[in-house]
Amino acid sequence: MQNNYQQKILGILGGGQLGRMLIQSAISYNIDIHILDPDSNAPCKSICQKFTQGSLADFETVYAFGKDCDIITIEIENVNTEALEKLQEEGKEVFPQPHLIRLIQDKRLQKTFYKENSIPTAPFVLTENKQAVINQTAFLPAVNKLGREGYDGRGVQILRKEEDLENAFDKPGLLEKLIDFDKEIAVIVAKNKRGDIISYPSVECAFHPTANLVEFLFAPAEIPVEVENKAQEIAKSVIQKLDLVGILAVELFVTKAGEILVNEIAPRPHNSGHHSIEANITSQFEQHLRAVLNMPLGNTTLRSPAAMVNLLGEDGYQGEVYVEGMDEALKQKGVYIHLYGKKITKPFRKMGHVTILDEDLENLKERAQEIKNMIKIKA
User: What is the pTM of this model?
Assistant: First the structure.
């Protein structure tokens, strides 16, 4: 029986850049997209079929929004899962499933899930408050993470020595052993309702030294074949054990001893997959749509080695956006600029990204640095 994708209304909770790029893929399939977002100037506002301004955390707002949709998905985890569960009970399809969103919303539950399911991850202890962290002196050096509401580097801090314990979060969280890793990589994996699973080649992430955000991404990751195979196996086992429908970004540490540990997961399109729009046969955004609409999953082969540079708001600038250096970048071969439609820039705010294609990985690294120095988001 044919799946009538065009007759389904897909509701997305969140109208930021991920929703915007999902809509860009949905246009090719004539899929109507409804968006709920608290920001009246959200990047998705002018390109979706219906935009609703409202809180993603409010039960009634999410429930009322979902009533008009056939299938509901997310582009951000911080949403009201109780409303999604009620919609699911009433026959709406919700992917990823609400109980999985709830599990991933809380890093404490997420880490406990890894442990209970024999998924390799860094040793950790759960903590209820600041005093509980202070009591764990022997566990240092460690990473202190808030259980809930941490994102883009917020709610995460490194505690190396006893004096650092004064900075501990005074909310439920966890302490995770500080891993002496060689590389941080990510694997994006997708699963549809039929149970088909497909994954993308690993990518290598380089983080901004102070903002704790991905600054550069390189595809493919420069890792031995056996490490790549193991990373793929782990990512697929995570989505299988969760039984999640949709797309899942699995962030991993490769230790200096060659061990692979799951750091965190995100049940939605992710910064580590932005390059796939140009670099892979099927982008992560199209793949997410295919998965939640139960379409056949798309081929994930890398067309070309790629680098991705996040365009962050320059430090010291806040106000209406001014993009510097764009013309110079556009003169180069294999450079693709994506601006996210955000009207106001702030220091380190994600304002866009650039993908660079080049057959030579060393060239890519040099060109990525050049592009980062060339394009500046100012006010």
Answer: 0.94
